Amino acid sequence: MAYGAVQALSNASFEASDGAITAVLGANGAGKTTLLRTMTGLVKAKSGSVRYGDIELTGKSVEAIARAGVAHVPEGRGVIAELTVEENLRLGALWSVGRQDRQSALEEIYELFPPLTKRRRGAASTLSGGERQMLAIGRALISRPKVLLLDEPSLGLAPMVTAQLMAVLRDLTKGSSLLVVLVEQNARSALSVAQRAVVLNLGKVVVSDSADRVLADQDLRRHYLGF
Amino acid sequence: MTLFIDVTLNGFVIGMIFAIVALGLVLIYRATRMINFAQGAMGMFTTFLAFSLLNRGVGYWLAFVLAILIGFLLGAIVELLLIRPLQGKPELNPVIVTIGLLIALEGLAGVIWGNSGRGFPAAFSQSGLTVGHTKVAFSHFDVFILVVVFALMLGVLVLFRATNLGLRMRAAAFAPEMARLLGVRVGRILTLGWALAGAAGALAGLLVAPTSSFNPYFMDLFLIYGFTAAVVGGLDSPIGALVGGLITGLCISFVGGYLGSSLEPLGALALLMVALMARPEGIFSRPAARRV
């Protein structure tokens, strides 16, 4: 996937590969959210392009990009509070899963996130922060995406819950072709699961390298990642 | 006692009509977060079209159904041509456009059909039924109104609660951006919301026209009462439209029956004030869940 410039972003090119987690790191205002919003068409880029394999995503509508297999879990999770847990999940499966497979697709998600099972008829507004994050990711996964974009999934979660989520993400990409772009301020936990890391600062890519090498670079960590 | 029964029955019937007008307003509010001031006028216009069809010898029920279909199309066209281009502009702009549309439709109807009152036929007899030995203010036509509105409300409920299309519509109403991220074509859903509201408006016009002086302004008062009903029930709740309609209908009927019909609009105003002070978000809306 190649990516180009917008106003909040310039010269922000990087590539992410299938079956791997690419962490996008950087301070507040570095342009991480704008980057994801451009990838899913919510923000129109003045120049530059977004591609998945041979598929050109630039200039497509948000709905078309979603239907092409790009699932975006926005910051604050985007769980629709007025709908029940199951309705949120069904919404994710509407166009991507055939009618006869929907029930089994739902069961898969409940298996992946057991706490959701007994809340399935409850309004999403009654879920805890961690459960909401599970629902948001489950709703993205039920559409069987090729690309999963996560914006600050650890925000507001207890460290234990964050660790569990990261473990789920690692399992998801293992042996699959799912491409995950993980935007995080919590660089330490993101780097613990990511294979690649992109560090953004003021809308520019500072480093795009393997996660191990970013983790090993003390200067870089201190400068841009704060640990 | 007869007065009490008559006033109550009348309240139910006009409440049902307010409920349809309110339902139209609610469908549009859910779709585009705005009040459609032309909701009544659109229904007025399609009813006049039905009137023309009737005069050309088209059967009553065919004209009835055609008017509703035209209302559906009119709603979709208004959304696509007048509301869609104003997306992203200040939110007062489309509201003002609907006021313009109200004036334009009433003017146009006046030019085509004249401003004087006419008669519009009812589907069924409008003379009161006899219960035991007393005649009550409740006719076959009133029964028809009750049945139609209940069927409509049930249909809307099933649509929203039990179908995938309804799920898409609710998602688009509550979280448009997230709905798009999940692949819902929100633009089409908005058009559909307006189209359904247009159909509801057409139905309201057909049900009101036989009971009032049939001129280009006959829906104006019903828009105001329908708006009261929608606010009382909650602007984004179809169930709220029904309950709000009944409350408004009963309130106005009692004010009219016991205090005099000239005080009816004041009764609606008082109800609106009380509702806005006691529960500004409406009976069936959850304020905490509403995104601003």
Number of strands of chain B: 2
Structural class of chain B: mainly alpha
Order of helices and strands of chain A: EHEEHEHHHEHEHEEHH
Helix content of chain A: 25-40%
In this structure, how is the largest beta sheet of chain B organized?
A: 2 strands, antiparallel
Quickly name the level 1 CATH class of chain B.
Answer: Mainly Alpha
Largest sheet of chain A: 6 strands, mixed
End-to-end gap of chain B: 48 Å
- Poorly predicted ranges of chain B: 288-292
Please give a structural write-up.
The complex is a heterodimer of chains A (227) and B (292). Helix content of chain A is 37%, strand content 16%. Chain A has 227 residues and is α/β, with parallel strands linked by helices. Chain A has a single domain (21-225), classed as Rossmann fold. In chain A, strands 4-5-6-1-7-8 form a six-stranded mixed β-sheet, with helices on both faces. Chain A is globular. The mean pLDDT of chain A is 86. A two-stranded antiparallel sheet of chain B has the order 1-2. The model of chain B is unreliable at 288-292 (pLDDT under 50).
